[in-house]
Design a protein that fits this description.
five-stranded antiparallel sheet; 9 strands; kinase activity; ACAD10-like; alpha+beta; Phosphorylase Kinase, domain 1; kinase; ACAD10_11_N; about 10% strand; Kinase-like_dom_sf
Amino acid sequence: MSAALDTEAVAVWLTQHLPGFAGPVQAEKFSGGQSNPTYRLTTPTGSYVLRRKPPGVLLKSAHAVEREFRVQQALAGTDVPVARMLVLCEDADVIGTPFYIMDEVRGRNFDAPALPGLAPPDRHAIIDEMNRVLAAIHDVDLAATGLTDYGPPGNYYRRQIDRWTRQYHATATDDLPEMTALMAWLDAHVPPEDGQRTLVHGDYRLDNLLFAADGPRCLAVLDWELSTIGHPYADLAAVIMQWSMPATPEGRGLRGVDRAALGLWSDAEFIARYCKRRGLPPITDFGFYLAFSYFRMAAILQGVKKRALTGNASDPERGLRLGRHVPEFARAGLAAAKETQ
């Protein structure tokens, strides 16, 4: 099955289902993503964004564009900025996979968390807004937004560890003792529930946010594929995990960066400000949440590698490069686990 977009089929379907739409459609694929292929659609009536499942055989529950559409539609009008959802097509016969259409949000996107080119006060403001939006996601009223059933009940970490262990085994291409040890440690150290059951984004990082051109205001949070109802510290730890990566185009982290000189926040400052925003006490045993984040990222990258090898990746060459980092994430997860012992 080809990943090429059938623009004629898209135009016919949108003419029937999107009021005010008129073709023809020109499509430009956004680069860099490893998950659901995403395209800018240029038409006589304006620009839209189409997001679809990738072609080929997929893992069960993976690439659920239907869930992405639902959660972003539910968040309209809340303190969480999202693009306006327009229409969902669940009929795979139209272009080969389900897809949805949303408004295009034009804003600044930052790949590097060091925010090169900005002045220190502007960097500080961007990270503060990132912190605010994260707290807003976790403070979403699930009942008011109709999202109480967006994730199953029960211990979130138990569920996630079991899920990603299965996914990892389904896509494993090498024998990695570090990953085996990390999965065993997490399996034995799942924390008891503490009463927090919130919306979680699942892939919260700076490059999944769009910011206004003239200031730090976040215009939209992107890529909700891994969102569910769960425990908020998973998102928080994911930010800290990302910052621990090398400060390279591939790593997109802050390792070795003089954060204070650049106006960036320390890990402790980010966590403390988040807790203050949500009225929470200091977090104990943060090493578990960090180890979990490394584990899940390792499992995700293993899936990316597998899709690249089988020809289903959005960007196969980059997918193979990312897949080489799986052992590194597993080792980092084990190091974080030792911090709790």
